[in-house]
Amino acid sequence: MDDTAAGLRRRLFDAAARMRKQRQEPPAPEGITSTEMYAIMAVSRLEGEGRKVRSGDIAKCGQATPSAVSQTLKSLEEKGLITRQRDKGDSRAVTVHLTKEGRAFSARGRELHEQMIDGVLTYLGPEDAEHLVRIVERLADFPASEAVLAQQGGRAQAGSSAAGANVSPISGADTGQAGAASSHAVGTAMDAGAAFSAADASSQTASAEGGAPCA
Predict the structure, then answer these.
(1) In whole angstroms, what is the distance from residue 22 CA to residue 130 CA?
(2) What is the reported pTM?
């Protein structure tokens, strides 16, 4: 097995590619699409935090376009799972609310996601599951790590030097490429952990426990 840096990188990319090919949408209760499930869970999460939920908030949660969210909300409203109302404090704004049926779908969707996560953890076994969680937690901290901050500082310094002196543009380009490569590597590594990507269930649980909002 090739454990060199190049070998590990190649194995990571290959594994991520295999997972993308096999990837399935997170489970959703019968009668709605996975996209609609994401929207329902986003509304449930934000409502649980006592926030006024608007379509823009849902778009941020799912990193979707406003037009796509609008279509999804229209479908959910037709199915009786949400209502849209004029905000009493701002007549120009529209807030989104789950109906009783919508809350039931949210609970069922969370249950399905938790079952999927449990399946992944069971497949991995206690030791590998612990390693996976530990590594994903470290990756979540990577953007704020000293290595990345130093790299960003190096790019800023290189840019400042280039503006005030005749500095070779190649060094600046190399630094920028290194930063892009680091970001890509982290993204790929996170994608390689995508079997664990019932992130909606995890973040919804975190929000219920007082965690940060998705937006």
Answers:
(1) 23
(2) 0.57
